[in-house]
Each structure stands twice: as structure tokens, then as C-alpha cells.
Amino acid sequence: MKWIVAAVVLLLTPLIAVSCLTTRIDAGHVGIRVRLAGSSRGVDDIPVVTGWVLYNPATEQIIEFPTSVVNVVWTKDPHEGQPTDESITFSSTEGVNVNADIGMSFHIEPKMAPHLYLRFRQPDLMKLADGYIRNAMREAFNQAASQMTVQEIYGAGKGKLLSTATEALADQLGRDGIVIDQLTINGALRLPDNVATAINRAMEATQQAIQAENRVRQVKAEAEQEVTKADGEANAARSRAKGEADARLTTARAEAKANLILRYSTTASVLQYRALEKWNGHLPIMNGSGSMPLLTFDVSNFKGGEDDEKKLRQLLAEADDASDAEPKKDEPPKKDDAPKKDEPPPPPPAAPKH
């Protein structure tokens, strides 16, 4: 039995010693080795990774430091976050106080964990958030809001306020290894009642002014459309009138030219020829004086001469030029059939002599 007891003691002693000299670092944490004695006592600069760690509990201490994301909310609502009012208040450039609920997500850079613990001696990040981080966040919002008017903060400049505060806070906390994942303004900003009423009235007046400007633009556009339509109708009417006038003028010129051609071509020989064309070949049985009718005309009134013939040739040449300039659609003009300007018109047939 003595040998059995001795064997058990020999087996349990190393196990007990190992359990006392080791600890485990959970996932999402890093271990910080603190030396309690010796020349190198203090916080070790190199953090201990996740897993089992061997250390001397007599001279060393291992502290777990969380590196996972931490979410914290500072709000006025007692049912969210802490039961007390933890909302922050910051002032605009006019000195108007603005109250807001803030939400924040952050984590610790693992390699900076020894520095952070050495500075604050606080491994509980929630306590660190409610103290140092909250004060830094409130100061960042105060600095950003002091450069903006209350109307900007309450209106379109809310995003600018948040981005400016986030940038300033990330720069300050980043030096301690605290990385900001997200910073938000939860819900609407709270203003004094009189300021909120004045801002709402100003915004309403601005909206009404914008609507009035839009109506003016619409009326102006409709008026321009009416003017353009009237100009188009007037131009169309002028074009139609000009076309009709040109058509009437062209017709009148053609008729005048035809009358001139008829006038210059009406000679004594032509009149005699036309009279013979209408004669039926029968002579009257008796004449008042007992003589035969004479198929002759008194041509003393026809004084046309070379001038009339010259004008007639000129008019005919102009008519031929006009017909050559406008060929028929179905039949192209023939070069050989075009009349020549120097060629006189065919003479009328001679009247028969009696």
C-alpha cells in the first residue's frame, strides 16, 4: 500500500504543479503579463496570445484584456443603457444647448493592450467607456458643434457634425489603441422649445419660398412656350401669305406675257387666215350692191412692223427658256428638240387670193 500511495503522490504532484503554473487565455482576449518582482518588474510590452500560458504565480500575474467589439449607449431613456440619464449636451456657435443620445462601438488593438492597461490599470472596458471614452466623446462633439450654427446642426449639417466629431475622437483614442468602429446619434436632437419652434418656422418659410420660386419658373416656362407657339404660327402665316402672293404674281406675269404674245402675233395675214378657216365655202346669193363679196381685210389699222416682230421673238425665246428650265417628271428634256433662240417662229399660212 505504501508503494501505491507513493506512486499516486508522484503522479498528482506534477499535475497540481502544472495547474498552478498555467492559465488559459480565451478567444477575443489577450493576456497581459505583469512581473511583480525582479529587475524587469512591470507590464510586459508583448501581449500573450490566446491559449494556455505558463507563468510563475509567485512573481508574475496574467491579466486578460478583451479585444472584441464593445457596444455602449449613452441615452436619456432609462430603459436603454443605464437607468440614469447619460445623454450628452453640446453648444452651437450661438451658445444654444443641444442634447443628444449617442451610441458607440469600439475595440482594442491587441498589440496596444499592454500600453492601455499600463495607463489606466483597468481591464474592464465598460468602466473605461463610461469614464475616459465618454469624456473624450463629449469633448469631440463640443468642438465640432462650436463651429456650426444651431440651424445647421438641427438640419442638413447633422451629418457633418457627426463626421467631424468621429474624426476628432478617433484621432485622440487611436493614440491609446482604441479603434472606433461606429459612432451614431440615436434619434432626434433635442433643443429648447423656443429655439425648435423658431427653426421650424424658418424651415417652413424656406420651403414656401422654394415652392414660390418653382411656381414662378413654371409660369415663366409656360409663357415662353406660348410665345414660341405664337411666333411659329405667325411665321407659318407669313410663309403661306408669301407663297400665295408669289403664286398670284407668277400667274399674273404668265397671263401678261401670254397677252403680249397674242397681241404681237395678231397680224393682218393671221386674221385673214382665221377668217378663211371659219368660212364654209358658200358665197351669198345676192349682195346689196350686186357685187361679189371680197374676202379681204382693211389692214391699214395693223401697224405692226419690225418692232412687234422683234418683241414677239424675244417673248417666245423667254418662254422656251422657262420650259427648258423645268423638265417634265416622266420625260427628260431632249437637247436636240430644244428651240434655238435665233430661229424665228413658223410663219402663218398665206391667205388665198381672189
Describe the overall structure.
The protein has helices at residues 2-21, 113-120, 125-145, 150-154, 158-174, 193-265, 268-278, 306-325; strands at 22-25, 29-35, 42-43, 51-54, 60-66, 70-74, 88-91, 97-108, 178-190. It is built from 8 helices and 9 strands. Helix 3 (125-145) packs across helix 5 and helix 6 crosses helix 8. Strands 6, 7, 8 and 9 form a 4-stranded antiparallel β-sheet that branches. It has a 3-stranded antiparallel β-sheet with strand order 3-2-5. Strands 1-4 form a two-stranded antiparallel sheet. Among the domains are: 2-66, no CATH class; 70-191, Band 7 domain (Tetrahydropterin Synthase, Chain A), CATH 3.30.479. 49% of the residues lie in helices and 16% in strands. With 354 residues, the protein is of the alpha+beta class. The radius of gyration is 59 Å and the shape is rod-shaped. A hairpin with a 6-residue loop joins strand 2 and strand 3.
Fold blueprint:
Layout: H1 2-21, E1 22-25, E2 29-35, E3 42-43, E4 51-54, E5 60-66, E6 70-74, E7 88-91, E8 97-108, H2 113-120, H3 125-145, H4 150-154, H5 158-174, E9 178-190, H6 193-265, H7 268-278, H8 306-325
Antiparallel strand pairs: 1-4, 2-3, 2-5, 6-8, 7-8, 8-9
